[in-house]
Amino acid sequence: MTAHNTAEPVAVRATHRLAYLPLAAGATAVATLGIAILMGPSRITPLVVGVLGLAALGLLGAELARRMARLRAEVGAGVVGLVALGLVNVALLAWLLGGLSLGPLIVPAALMVAGGVLVGLTLGRVTQPRDENLTPWQAMAAGTTGRDADQALRVLGPALAGLALIVLASALVLRRLAFAQPLTVLAGLVLMGLVTVVPAALVTLWVVRRRAPHTQASAPVARGPQEVAAHLHDSVLQTLALIQRRADDPAAVTQLARRQEHDLRDWLAGRDRPGADAGTLAAALKRAAREVEEAHAGAAVDVVTVGDVPLTEALVVTVEAAREAMLNAARHAGPRVRVYAECEDEGVVTVFVRDTGPGFRLDDVPPERRGVRDAIVGRMDGVGGEAVIDSTEAGTEVMLRVPKRTTP
Amino acid sequence: MTPLPRVVLVDDHALFRAGVRAELDGLVDVVGEAGDVPTAIQTVLDAAPDVVLLDVHMPGGGGLEVLEQVLARRPAQCFLALTVSDAPEDVIAIIRAGARGYVEKSISTADLAAAVVAVRGGEPVFSPRLAGFVLNAFSGRAPVGAVDPEVEQLTPRERDVLRLIARGYAYKQAALQLQISPRTVETHVSSVLRKLQLSSRHELAHWAARRGLAGD
C-alpha cells in the first residue's frame, strides 16, 4: 500500500478516477433511455443534456465525498456527495419534466437527503483513512466481500435502507407527474433503482477483479482493531512484551514471543493476507528480518524505515545483502540487531544493519570465509551499489547504498 | 551518588506493573502504582515522583487523560510513555500532550532504567522507531499542511542526529560519530521534541496512519 502512495500516486489516482467512468456512462445511458421512454422521443435532446449534467454533478459529488473521506477519516464520508446527488436529482427532475413548482418537492428532497446520509454514513464506516485511494464503492466492495457474512450485512443493511429511501423519494416525484398509469410509474421506479444500483454493482465487480490485491489488503482494515476484541489483543501484546522482557536466557521463549507478536501486529494491521503489502523495500526488509529471527533463536531484528519504494532488481539484491548482514549480526553479535533503511529524495536507497557485538575487521576474515565478501560486498558491487562495513568494539554497522535506478 | 529516581507506575495490567516493578527493583524507587485514570492522577499528584511510567492505553480516557490532567496542575511533571502500541496516532498524541519520551514495552530492563534516568535529567528519550517516525513526518514527503507552516522544519543537523538514533546509536555514540558534544546532541533532540509537540497532531497522525508508518 505504501508503495502505491509514495511511488505511483499519479497512476493510482488515474486508476480510481477511471473507475468512475463506467458508472457515469451506465447511469447516463440508463437514465436517458428510461426518461425518454417515459416522456416520448420529442424531448430527448434536452433530456440528454440534463442527464449528462446530472451524471457530471453526481461524479463531482462522489469525488467530493472521497476528499471528505481523506480529510475526516470516518464520519461523513460520502454524505456530501450523496446529499448533493439527491438534491440535484430532485431539482433536475422538476426542471426536466416541467410543470412542477419546487414546493411539493420538499418532502421527496428531504427523503432523498436522508437516504443519501444513510448510504453516506455506511460508506464512511467502511472508508478507513488507509484507503484514501479507494472510491467509496471500492471501499464498500472491500467491506462486503469480507469473509464475514455478519459484516456484509452490517454494511449492506443501512446502505439498502438508504437506497430504499432514495427510491421512495423518486416515487413521490414520479407520482406527481401527469402519467396516470401505475405501470408507467412502476417502470420509472425500476429504472431509477437500476440507475443507482446496476452501475454501482458493475463498477464494484470490475474494481474488485482488477485490483484484487489492493482491495483485499484493505479489507481487514475494515474489520477494525477497535471493534474486534481490542482489549484481548492489547492483553496478548502486554503479555508478549512481558515475556520478551523477562527472557534474558531462554532464547526460544523470546523467539516465540516475537513471532507471535509479529503475527498479531500483522493481523491487526491487516497485513496477514498473502500478497498484501509485498513488493516494497520496507516489506522485503521486514520479511528478511523475520526469517533471520526464526533462523536464530533469541535474535531480535528491529526494522525502521523512512520512506518506501517498490522493489527493483537492484533492491532485491540489496535486501539479500542486508539479510546476510542481519544473519552475521545475529550469529556473531546478537541478540539485538537494528535495521534502518532510508529512501532519499535523490533516488538513493541506504540500508544500515547494526549490532552491538564485539566487532571484526574485514582484513582479519580469512579468505576462505566468503560470507561477507561475496554475499555482501560482492552483491552490492554487482548492482552498481556499495557496501561499507564499519566495525568497532562497540558494534558493527554495515551500510548498503544503491541508486534507485541502476541497470542490472 | 544521586538518589534513585522516584517512579510511579501507571498501567491497567497489574501483571505488567508487577513485572516492571520486580525488574526495576534496585534501579529505581517505585513510590506508587495505579491501574486506572482517576487513581493515577491522584497518585501522581500525591507522590510527586520524578518520573511517571505511563501506559498509553488505559480504560477511561487512557494515558493521555492522565498526562493532560496532571500537567494542568503540575506542568513540570515528567512522563515517560511505555507502550505496546506503535500506532502513529498514539505516538504523536502522547508526545504532543507533553511526554518527554516514548519507549516500547519490549525494551530491555537496563535500557528502561537508563531511559528513566535520562528523562529525569530533562533529556528526551527517542527510541529508534520514534526517530524514524519523526524523520518520516518531517521528510517533506508529507503533504502540504501535514506539518504546520509556522513550525520550523528539522535542520540538517537534527536530521543527522535522528538518523543515527534510528540506526540504534545512543546519544553518546551519536555525538562521537558527528564529532559534537553529547550536550549538543541533547540540545538537538530537545529541539526536535519541541517541534514535534508543536506540529499539527491531527494531520500528522492521519497522514502517518495512511502511510502505515508504524513499522512492525
How is this fold's topology laid out?
The complex is a heterodimer of chains A (408) and B (216).
Chain A: H1 2-7, H2 9-18, H3 20-39, H4 44-71, H5 79-97, H6 106-126, H7 136-144, H8 149-175, H9 182-210, H10 212-222, H11 230-246, H12 251-269, H13 281-295, E1 300-306, H14 313-333, E2 336-343, E3 348-355, H15 371-382, E4 386-392, E5 395-403
Parallel strand pairs in A: 1-2
Antiparallel strand pairs in A: 2-3, 3-5, 4-5
Chain B: E1 6-10, H1 14-24, E2 29-34, H2 37-47, E3 51-55, H3 62-73, E4 78-83, H4 88-96, E5 101-104, H5 109-120, E6 125-126, H6 128-137, H7 156-166, H8 171-178, H9 182-198, H10 201-211
Parallel strand pairs in B: 1-2, 1-3, 3-4, 4-5, 5-6
Q: How would you sum up this structure in a few lines?
A:
The complex is a heterodimer of chains A (408) and B (216). With 408 residues, chain A is an alpha+beta fold. Helix content of chain A is 65%, strand content 10%.
What does this structure look like?
The complex is a heterodimer of chains A (408) and B (216). The longest helix of chain A has 29 residues. In chain A, 65% of the residues lie in helices and 10% in strands. Chain A has a 5-stranded mixed beta sheet with strand order 1-2-3-5-4. The N terminus of chain A is likely disordered. Chain A is built from 15 helices and 5 strands. In chain B, 52% of the residues lie in helices and 13% in strands. Chain B has 2 domains: 123 residues, 3-Layer(aba) Sandwich (Rossmann fold), CATH 3.40.50.2300; 91 residues, Arc Repressor Mutant, subunit A, CATH 1.10.10.10. Chain B contains 10 helices and 6 strands, in the order βαβαβαβαβαβααααα. In chain B, helix 4 runs antiparallel to helix 10, helix 6 packs antiparallel against helix 7 and helix 7 packs across helix 9. Chain B starts with 5 loop residues before the first strand and ends in a 5-residue tail after the last helix. Classes of the chains: A alpha+beta (408), B alpha/beta (216).
